[in-house]
Write a structure and sequence with these properties.
six-stranded antiparallel sheet, 20% helix, 191 residues, alpha+beta, single chain, seven-stranded mixed sheet
Length: 191
């Protein structure tokens, strides 16, 4: 099914406290998605073979308190570039970012592409093959983090669907669920 459906099933399993005793087999409907990459499948045949071979992997989930879990990625979009306040453990701060990406394991990625220059600059970088180092993004890990918008509540999307609004607290839930993933395969060398 879709990433949205998978995340809804995971939420039910995790809130019912049955996730640790459950093995989840997934056949994605989009083989270009982050979920397909996480599972190691590229088409329907490889997804079915993955289920048949049954290699288990215990994965982390991310929780948006009080009861929304996800396996893929959450995005907080801030099109007006208002300040976003965040707090974790004993640290508090604020950021100007167009988007914040939150991944399981509570990997947080702040991004503000408005500082990267206009399309003319990007065109010349493409034309001359120059790739600038990304100095406009920040990335870090934490166990728990709270986000609040300065002037308004910001939407939190998972798989393109709004599932919460700020203020919101994200928490890492380690080794909560077993999923079936593709086995590593060795490809023969060409002679």
């Amino acid at each position: 099914g879709s990433e949205a459906l998978v995340n809804k099933v995971i939420t039910v399993l995790a809130t019912e406290k049955t996730a640790q005793n459950t093995v989840l087999g997934i056949i994605p409907d989009n083989f270009d998605s982050a979920l397909s990459k996480k599972l190691g499948v590229s088409d329907l045949r490889s997804a079915c073979n993955t289920l048949k071979l049954r290699k288990l992997q215990t994965v982390n989930l991310c929780l948006i308190e009080p009861n929304k879990y996800f396996l893929t990625e959450a995005v907080i979009e801030n099109p007006r570039r208002d300040e976003i306040f965040f707090s974790m453990e004993s640290i508090q701060g604020k950021a100007l970012a167009n988007k914040i990406f939150i991944k399981p394991g509570l990997k947080i990625y702040f991004n503000d592409p408005s500082f990267e220059g206009g399309s003319g600059k990007k065109f010349f970088q493409w034309l001359f093959g120059k790739k600038e180092k990304d100095i406009y993004s920040s990335f870090f890990h934490t166990k728990k983090m709270r986000f609040e918008g300065e002037k308004r509540n910001l939407s939190i999307k998972v798989s393109g669907e709004i599932i919460a609004k700020t203020p919101a607290t994200f928490a890492n839930r380690t080794r909560v669920l077993k999923i079936i993933v593709a086995r590593d395969t060795m490809k023969p060398e060409k002679e």
